[in-house]
Amino acid sequence: QVQLVEFGGRLVQAGGSLRLSCAASGRAFNIGAMGWFRQPPGKDRDFVAAINWSSDNTYYADSVKGRFSISRDNANKMVYLQMDSLKPEDTAVYYCGLRVQSGLGYDRSDFNYWGQGTQVTVSS
Questions:
Q1: Per DSSP, what are the bridge partners of residue 13?
Q2: HEC assignment per residue over the chain
Q3: Cβ neighbours of residue 65 under 8 Å, at least 6 residues apart?
Q4: CA-to-CA distance for 77 and 37, rounded, in angstroms?
Q5: Whole-number pLDDT of residue 121
Q6: Would you state the pLDDT for residue 28?
Q7: What percent of the chain has pLDDT over 90?
Q8: How far are the Cα atoms of 38, 66, 93, 100 from residue 43, in angstroms, in the given order?
């Protein structure tokens, strides 16, 4: 069983920055990639960013390119999401996902495990 725990979400003003963290733990498991998704109130959970666990490959949603940056710490099984120039439309619950298979994932179905989410609220 794999557990994912996200933290770092809070209320921030538009134009500000925030760093989300996600820790993976559990019995022996493989990590092919990790990613971040977000779910605004009343909407679907959408892809934000993903990072390959064995290479430098990353992928971002168009809406966050140039503002968000995903990184990882392999030794501690952590993934981070640095969010800059935040906008009110970035307000959402942010979820961390873990993909066991190799290769990047871009869809919810590409990821096998999920955290409980952390709330990010950007005020105007």
A1: 123
A2: CEEEEEECCCEEECCCCEEEEEEEEECCCCCCEEEEEEECCCCCCEEEEEEECCCCCEEECCCCCCCEEEEEECCCCEEEEEECCCCHHHCEEEEEEEECCCCCCCCHHHCCEECCCEEEEEEC
A3: none
A4: 18
A5: 98
A6: 72
A7: 92
A8: 9, 24, 11, 26
Q: Which of 42, 59, 65, 50 is nearest to 96 (CA)?
A: 50
Strands 92-99 and 33-39: antiparallel
- Position 25, amino acid: S
The number of residues making up the chain comes to: 124
- Token pair in block for residue 124: 């105007």
The answer to whether the beta carbons of residues 40 and 27 sit under 8 Å apart is no
The pLDDT score that the predictor gives to residue 119 is 98
Q: Compute the distance between CA of residue 88 and CA of residue 78 in angstroms, rounded to an integer.
A: 27
In the block, which residue shows the tokens 């179905």?
Answer: 109
Tokens (6 digits) for 78: 């952590």
Ranges under pLDDT 70 in the chain:
none
